[in-house]
Structure formats: structure tokens, C-alpha cells
Write a sequence for this structure.
């Protein structure tokens, strides 16, 4: 994954580690090492707290884009599938491919909620997600043959 962060005027490319490039000249600046990283999935900037989040199969990394270092790393109990950030409050939502669950971390990087009782019957995991800024809701598509769309109130 690749993303531009205006705060540091840098481009970040997620692979085994994160490569940082100057956004004006596209010149290499540094490499941010991600210890224990396997199967990189997503890279998102959280404007609410100014951190960059890197999601891999079983870890969530929090990166300071001004210092270009890892602030913290959280080991995930399930196989991550997707990550979105609620732009109104900075909450980070992580879905999993091997369980019917979405974890919610607050902007302080603390797990504050786990949603796993949906009121809908499906097998497989929660899969792709998107944030709807107008409604302030997160939409989740299930990873089964039904392709059920679930809505999480982001307030």
C-alpha cells in the first residue's frame, strides 16, 4: 500500500517495512523497520492524532510520521483483513478474515470495543470496510457467499 502524508510531506510505501520518500522530489529518505511484520495489508493516516497506521496479518503498527519511527505495535489475535479510520473521532476499525468480529481502537491506540454479535447470520469473517463520512458510519462486507453488508454506528 502507499499513502501521502501532508503533515510530513512524505510518501510512505508499505511492504515488509515502510519506505519513506520526499513528496516533492520523490527521493529516498529512510526505511521504517516493522519488526515481526508478515503479509502487509493496509496503510492509513489518522488526521485526528497525526499517526500513520500499518496493518499486517497479525499486527497493527503505529508510526510517528514526523520522526519516522514505530511508536507501538499491537499483536492481533486473528488474521486481519482490512482497516478504516473514523475521521470524526479518530477510531481505528480492524476486520478479520477468520472470525466474525471487528475491533475498535480509539485514537489513543487502546482497544475500546469488539463487535461480534451482529444480529445477522453469516459464516466466515468480516472483510472489506469503508467509512461513510456523511453518516459517520462504518460499512462492513462479510467474507462468505451471502456478501452481507453490516453497518456500525461510528458515533
Amino acid at each position: 500500500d502507499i499513502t501521502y502524508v501532508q503533515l510530513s510531506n512524505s510518501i510512505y510505501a508499505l511492504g515488509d517495512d515502510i519506505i519513506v520518500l520526499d513528496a516533492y522530489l520523490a527521493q529516498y529518505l529512510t526505511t521504517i523497520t516493522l519488526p515481526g511484520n508478515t503479509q502487509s495489508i493496509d496503510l492509513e493516516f489518522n488526521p485526528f492524532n497525526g499517526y500513520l497506521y500499518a496493518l499486517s496479518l497479525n499486527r497493527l503498527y503505529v508510526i510517528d510520521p514526523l520522526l519516522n519511527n514505530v511508536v507501538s505495535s499491537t499483536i492481533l489475535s486473528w488474521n486481519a483483513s482490512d482497516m478504516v479510520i473514523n475521521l470524526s473521532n479518530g477510531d481505528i476499525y480492524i476486520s478479520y478474515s477468520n472470525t466474525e468480529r471487528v475491533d475498535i481502537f480509539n485514537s489513543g491506540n487502546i482497544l475500546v470495543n469488539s463487535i461480534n454479535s451482529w444480529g445477522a447470520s453469516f459464516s466466515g469473517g468480516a472483510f472489506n470496510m469503508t467509512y461513510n463520512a456523511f453518516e459517520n458510519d462504518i460499512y462492513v462486507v462479510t467474507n462468505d457467499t451471502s456478501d452481507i453488508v453490516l453497518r456500525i454506528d461510528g458515533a
